[in-house]
Amino acid sequence: MFALVWGTFATTLGWVVAADFRGAAHRFHAFSHAATPFVGSGAHVMGVGFFRLVAGLFALIGPIVLVTGLLELWRGETENFSLPPVGGWFVLVQAVILGAALWSFWRRSGFLRRQWDVGSGPRRAAVAGVTASTVAFTLLLALGSGTWMLAAWLLGGLCGIALLLSDPAYSATDV
Question: For the whole prediction, is pTM greater than 0.70?
Answer without folding.
Answer: no
